[in-house]
Specification:
By secondary structure, the protein is of the alpha/beta class. The chain folds into 2 domains: about 140 residues, Rossmann fold; about 40 residues, no CATH class. It contains 6 helices and 7 strands; from the N terminus they run βαβαβαβααβββα. The strands form 2 sheets. The protein has a 5-stranded parallel β-sheet, sandwiched between helices. A hairpin with a 6-residue loop joins strand 6 and strand 7. Helix 3 packs parallel to helix 5. The longest helix has 21 residues. The protein is elongated and about 55 Å long. The termini are far apart.
């Protein structure tokens, strides 16, 4: 497979930085152009993302052809449209690894791109057990950060804690039964 155009979407997170390093290394090996893309939500101020995108582009190195793009709209749809328009051969992107209810609530940009992408997609997992080479960001580790559960507010490693997740799963069949008897 010949790689001429490689796309790395970024949200400027440490995970995107790792995906960028992988994409940069692949682009160097293949002699490909690297496209760095950031999507800004509608009605958001694009000035800070523009500065961040320029910083990321400079960090890719001078010995690489880099093209940047700052788009507005839906992240997944913008990534897909850009990939089609620029005839991208490979997309390298991070995935935060959300599952279950948290994926249902927040959606998954990576999942949508993988399902609908016009080319192969390399996903970089959200939790890196061992750093890759010497260039992996120090902030990525096997330790999962704790945050408040979206349902009950108790500290959890997931967006929805296990107790709330089990309660929601238990309620789902009851709701299906009551909905189908109401029709």
């Amino acid at each position: 497979m010949r790689l001429n155009e490689i796309l790395v979407p970024t949200d400027f997170s440490p995970l995107s930085a790792l995906a960028g390093q992988i994409a940069r290394d692949m682009a160097k090996q293949a002699g490909a152009r690297l496209h760095v893309l950031h999507v800004v939500a509608r009605n958001a101020d694009p000035s800070q993302p523009a500065e961040d995108l320029a910083r990321v582009s400079r960090a890719m190195g001078h010995d690489l052809r880099v093209e940047t793009a700052l788009l507005t709209g839906s992240s997944a749809q913008s990534i897909l449209a850009y990939a089609r328009e620029k005839h991208i051969d490979l997309i390298v992107m991070g995935t935060h690894g959300r599952t279950g209810m948290s994926r249902e609530i927040l959606g998954s940009v990576a999942e949508t791109v993988v399902r609908l992408g016009p080319c192969p997609i390399l996903t970089v997992p959200g939790v890196v057990v061992e750093p890759i080479g010497n260039s992996a960001p120090a902030s990525l580790s096997a330790e999962v950060p704790s945050r408040p559960c979206l349902v009950c507010g108790h500290t959890s490693e997931d967006l929805v804690c296990e107790v709330c997740r089990n309660r929601i799963r238990a309620e789902a069949p009851e709701r299906r039964t009551s909905c189908s008897s109401a029709t």
